[in-house]
Amino acid sequence: MLREFVSNTLNEIDKLIAKKSVKFYFVLAVVMPILIGFAAVRIQSNDMITLPALSISFFIMNSFLLVVLPLFVFMSSSELFAGEWEKGSLFQVRPVTRMEIYLSKASAIAVLTFMQLVVVWALALITSTVLEKTIIWNEIGSMFISLLVSIVPLAAIVSLATFISQWFKNSPASLASGIFLYGLMAALPFAFPNLLHLFPTAYMDWYQQWLGNVNVLWLVQSFAYLFSFSSLFLTAGYYMFKAKEL
């Protein structure tokens, strides 16, 4: 069962990588940190302003965690679920079960999302090193912690995206709805602050809670929320997928 699941996940990854839109996101993950770093170096060389390297690194990470990677997740989910439904290519191949199909698609999205984050992390460190002209080991440690803990809120977004895709039979509608809902969750707390921690969007910069003075109780509570959120929407999405006539 595990062998079939891994094989199916790799197949889903191959399908995504073959798409031009996915390649674009990986190019963006390579180019954007370099461009930001180059701009920062130019600003400092002109004595316009002194920019701390660590701030640049975290700015790059935040840009991807808050905007780029969620867009990638919703796009990939729309392609693998609603898009394949629209093309009539969403079918069951025995002995692979529907649960394995669903989880392999979700896993493929999660793996590629994390791969992009690793690329951004590495290039952000290079940018930081160039700015400081030396290797600062505590920055590497902080960035590595940020990389690892960011898996949790990203998993929640993947679960939500796969759930949303089950409601649609074409990828544009699924993608537009996912982006709209994500934007709504990010915007509503500005009008209703009490809603802030009810949405996973509030935890996209969750890694910052792990740096400096750590509030253990808050970390446990937020982890429990993100885990419950992921489990709920992953399960609900699977049951909707299972009920479909493929």
From TrEMBL:
Keywords: Membrane, Transmembrane, Transmembrane helix
Protein name (Swiss-Prot/TrEMBL): Membrane spanning protein
Upper lineage: Bacteria, Bacillati, Bacillota, Bacilli, Bacillales
Segments passing through the bilayer: 24-43, 49-74, 108-131, 143-163, 175-196, 216-241
Organism: Mesobacillus selenatarsenatis (strain DSM 18680 / JCM 14380 / FERM P-15431 / SF-1)
Domain of life of the organism encoding this protein: Bacteria
